[in-house]
Amino acid sequence: MKFAYQFTEKKEPVTIWINELPVMVNEANELVCIPHSIDMPVIGTVGKRASGKSYMNHSMIDRIYWYWKEPLLCMNDLTHELISWGRANSSKQQIELLAKYGESPKPLPIVYLYPHFKNIILPDHDFYELSIPFEFFLQSAPYFLDLKKSADHLKLNLKYIMHCKSPEEIQEELSLRIKNKNIVQTIMVSLRKYVDEELTDFNSNALSYVDVGDYASMAAMYPYAEMEEDKARRLYPPRKYGPIPFTKEQFDYFLEDGREIGYPIESGLKYYWSNRSRYTPMLGFARQNLIPVLNTEQLRSKKYFHSYMYYLLDVIINNQSRDKYWSTNSLPVWLFFDEVTRVASTTLKKETTDKLREIAQSGRPLRMGLLYVTQDYVKVDSILRSQTTYLFSFRFTAKSQAKTIRDDMHLSEYEEEEILSLRKHEVLGMTSEHFVVYSPDGQRYETEKTQKGISLPPLSEHSRPRSITHT
């Protein structure tokens, strides 16, 4: 959990082992850090377009993964800017700055996921298609289907249709239990629309589960338990590292870090599973120290976008409280939302807003932390704003944005004015808790004061949002 930072002040470098998350360098050339706590924080990064907020958020994600070694899920990639994160930072200027603090470039093991639905346009880089398990879809059906008064009838009969293998079987079961045939018809019309949309593994071959566990060579261990290699591959797909294939040199980053990344199935060998657990893909990949990235560029225009996000958040929350491996090991999980106001805001009265509120208000018992980015802080849900532990503001030109930040974070009038006059990559760091700060000669102190400075560069390659070629 510890990592070294080198501090200099007209003398030989001093190496200090620290346990906090470094985020910025203030005007006094001090290293400003977020302390590691069992009370998982909510961290917001805000500012006008192209002000540096994505750059800073990226640098925090890199260090959460590499230094705190905690699972992290990117919930809504909108612009494909995360695709470069699979490469180590190659900027000469940024590498020199990293070296100043005893750091070095490192890639992130990202895995791109695309939600499968009818007529989706797929990209030209490595990815997995993601399906909703049909039984989970049925459990969440009241949030997907436009049923109105018929919703209660579906909820009462869910346990009877969970085993069904076709819409015809579902209709037969409902007809046995609901006397009003019009209600049955309303449910079935809405249900068939979603079945035809191919969102679930009911009629899609996209990935709906990932099996995680230990396995060994069957030939060496249990000859009588042989399994054909292609069957093993169906149980657990060959690992992929995301959009940019890792070279051996890049993979050595993870070997040196002492972590296994996924479970490879070598060609020509037969395997059996031991201690296997089954997860939905985002959690399954995170369990293997990979970073799943859900691309929502096309999903966000669908009428069921919020229902889909509700399903994902509900599964993750339940996993934190019910999964034996996660709870026994007290594993935390971080969720990152780009442009969070597309998922939860003052104007979105959706179930996803309620779910994000639940996560923000229950960071400690759920062991869940939130990172969010937005250009419009005023529209961030008020509960989410009130639960934001650390807020990093880049420049705004609208006085209403600075005024809202001042009110929420109890700033002075002078600090409010500073938000409006920040230069590019300058940031104001605020907290309702405290920062840990290291002086240039390595002295450590804690402070609740607002910090002004610049963010640290990311360890992996940063790129601006861009369009992508589809096939």
Labels describing this entry:
single chain; 471 residues; alpha/beta; Rossmann fold; 2 domains; two-stranded antiparallel sheet; disordered C terminus
Task: Report on this structure.
By secondary structure, the chain is α/β, with parallel strands linked by helices. Helices cover 35% and strands 21% of the residues. A hairpin with a 4-residue loop joins β3 and β4. The protein starts with a strand and ends in a 16-residue tail after the last strand.
Assigned CATH class of the largest domain: Alpha Beta
Cα gyration radius (Å): 24 Å
Q: How would you state the average pLDDT, rounded?
A: 82
Instruction: Report the major sheet.
Output: 14 strands, mixed
Quick gist of this model?
With 471 residues, this protein is of the alpha/beta class. The chain has two domains: 3-129 and 278-455, P-loop containing nucleotide triphosphate hydrolases (Rossmann fold), CATH 3.40.50.300; 134-196.
